[in-house]
Amino acid sequence: MRHSRWKIAVSLCFALPFVSVGQAFAQSATVTVSSQKQYIRGFGGMNHAAWAGDMTAAERTLAFGNAEGQLGFSALRIPVTDGSPDSVNVATAKAAIANGAIVFATPWNAAGTMTAAQFPAYATHLTNFVSYMKNQGVDLYAISVQNEPDYGAQAGWGSWTAALCHDFLLTYAGTVGTKLMSCESFSYNKSYYDPILNDSAALAKATIFGTHLYGTSTSAYAYPLFDSKAAGKERWMTEHYTDSTTDANSWPNALGVASELHNAMVTGQFNLYTWWYIKRSYGFINNGAVTKRGWCIAHWSKFVRPGFYRVDATAAPTAGVNVSAFKGDTDVVIVVVNTNSSSKSLSITVDGSSIASYAKYTTSSSKSFASDGMVTASNGALSVTLDASSVTTLRGTGPSTGGTGGAGGTGGSGGAAGSSNAGSNGLGGSNPAAGSGGVGGANAVGGSGNVSGSSNGVGGQSNQGGFSTGGTAVAAAGSSGNGTAAAGGLQGTGGDAAMGSPAGDQSGCSCRTAASARSDWTSFSPLLLGLVGLLSRRRRSRGARA
Question: Is 260 a catalytic residue?
Answer without folding.
Answer: no
